Amino acid sequence: MSAPQLNRALGLRLVIVVVIGNILGSGVYKKVAPMAAELHSSGWILICWVLGGIITLFGALSNAEVAGLLADTGGDYAYFRKIYNRFFAFIFGWSLFTVIQTATIASLAYVFAQSLASIVSLPPVLTSLADFNLAGVFYPFADFNVKLTAILLITLLTWLNTKGIKTSASVSTAILALVFIGIFVIVAFGLAHSPKSLGSVVSTQTTDPGHSVTLSSIFTGMLSAFWAYQGWASIGYIGGEVKDAKRNIPRGIAVGVFIIIALYLLVNTTYLSLLSIPQLEQIYKTGNQITAIEAVRSFWGTNGALFISVLILVTTLGCTNASILSGCRPYFAMAREGLFFSKAAELNEARVPANSLLFQGVWSCLLVLSGTFDQLTDMIIFAVFIYYGATTLGVFILRKRMPDAPRPYKVWGYPIVPAIMILFCIALVINTTFARPREAAIGLVLMLTGVPMYLWFNRKERAVLQQEPA
What we know:
Blueprint: H1 12-23, H2 27-30, H3 32-39, H4 42-70, H5 76-83, H6 86-119, H7 144-161, H8 165-192, H9 198-201, H10 215-229, H11 245-274, H12 277-286, H13 291-327, H14 329-336, H15 354-370, H16 373-401, H17 416-435, H18 437-448, H19 450-467
């Protein structure tokens, strides 16, 4: 008797919704502040958003060719298994579990909790342990009321996602509709109340005369932009649940990323027209303020701050849900090949990998306790761009290995576009290693824990095969 299969329930519209839902989260509201602290220039901030969007689009188009050729449940995990080998595919899947996807879920839930705390007063929890730390890096009980709220959100959405992928995607659709309405309200009213001219907003002059914008500061500033763009590749993880996946996944990725680039430029131009660079730097220094709230507060007062806080709640709720929905599928694919905990290979009555969702949810909750929002996101970007580069390199490998295979989509600008993406990934990983050594080191250590785990899973699988009757 064959194992139960995933349900192919998502058409092109819902694919686009899942792509946008995985991208549009906390970055659009928060990340302009750390960019201001790094660049000290509104014009250079906008340039970084444009560059980040272009590089993201190059990566998305390259990924779309690979997805069109190899679309399957697990996304890049399935691609890497066919392009490279089983070991590299496992290290990617393990990196998703330890850093990339679970830290994304933790970060989004954390911002949701911060936004809720700005609306209602969360009762203090375990304040006596706030200074407890591990190696002076991790403070698990600092702001524990916020962290506990984030953990409760992850738990609730993990349970919701066990009810079926169509239910989860429908929730994301409804949330996205509310988010787009709210963002366009902010843009329209914000630009109408702006005290600045467009020329001053796009000026590349720095507010700090002693500061010059360097290539390294541009790369570091772009870490923030890339966090906001992060998530587009997640649609590949649910390839086994997409109708006509080899056509709909490439189309959905391209359309979704184009929409996000335009939206981010509009929103961040609005923020920069309402707040000065020194104000944004101060927001960054406080650590617990959100740029979007302060921008709307500047022209709508307390009611505006309440409006944007609710909008951030809704947005991060939607993105957390989309990330949970797609994130657990690679572990399911790995478990079916004996490369993850065997329970993760089981489907429930709704044909959903419920145990894989559970493993993902537990580790995401632990990561909530591990650090601050910016610490988590820098870890993610360092790790994920290693694999973005590997996927893009796969375009060249597959063109040579499978030249005559039918490709529903071929990357525009080949070979220049994928080559630029690969070179950029290398440069960003090197720069992050020097600019954010702690976050890079933590991310790398978590990824490398996959080496002994691979050996352990392999040994377990061989033992099972030896016990089976010939």
